[in-house]
Specification:
By secondary structure, the chain is of the alpha/beta class. It contains eleven helices and 17 strands. 30% of the residues lie in helices and 26% in strands.
Amino acid sequence: MLHAVVMAGGSGTRFWPLSRQARPKQFLPLTGGAPLLVETVKRLKGMTTWVVCGKTHAPLVKKLVKSAKVVVEPQARNTAPAIALATAHVMHVDPEATLAVLPSDQHVADVPAFRAALETAAQTAAEGYIVTLGVKPTRPDTGYGYIRVGAPVGAALGVKQFVEKPDLPTAQGYLQSGEYVWNAGMFVFRAPVMMKAFEHHMPELYAAVTELRKTIGTRQYESRLKKLFPQMPATSIDYGVAERAENMAVVPGSFGWSDVGSFNALPEVRHVDSQGNVTEGQVITVDCQGCVVLGSKRLVSVVGMNDLVVVDTDDALLVLPKAKSQDVRKVVEQLKGNKKLNRYL
């Protein structure tokens, strides 16, 4: 049986003021339908689903996805400790389990193609590989990490190299070469294989999670979790394991994927009008092209603007060029440093 582990951490910075610390991106209906977390769990129907999240968000997770088992992190320590914690819980009920670790805040348009890729990855994982799902690039995007693929490994491909976000000329070269896929942050592996990888590449983490596993299901678990989890290095699974392991494989796929990384990405996942605008709420656009205008209770009118983002909520207004969408983080940083304004976080 495939156990799906959905990573639902997040601090609510990229979609402020829609997202806040108490309601980050994965809890927002950014595609115009259900919250991203709900959409993620829905396309995993039939699998045993686990959601990893922080204490603050656990009540909301339990409310939104009642069918999932919830694993709570006592603090945020990046993806490697979160995956180790989830793997320990899955192994408690199924020691030989195969896990699919997936972000909670991405969009997939072609669910059958996505599930077929997961099935191929699970078959490859059964042979002892740690498998990542790679997305076949459709443009020279500088916002994603890339994976350079190698020779066939069963139904998958080998991994030659993980590379960081490139500049535009490098991304264009990656696209033209046909040797690279986007790194979507999805992994499929057998639980004992990942534990062995932790033992080899992250011994401090392995020691802590091994000790913690002994207490799962007992009264001692919570106190040991509070002590042992902070001892795990705050490292990403990419850096801690994937970039070091020799048994990596990748399944390239095309399933209408988007990481919905900023307001600039909303036209990829939302309805756009004849002028390329995305609108929500009581909105009027006049002579506008390529704008994202999201209203709430009051009327928002935008005239004569191109490639602009306007987000109006009950207590905050955001206006910026679409090309500067990533700079929303800078607003959040200033709010954190201002005691008078940090109530807007």
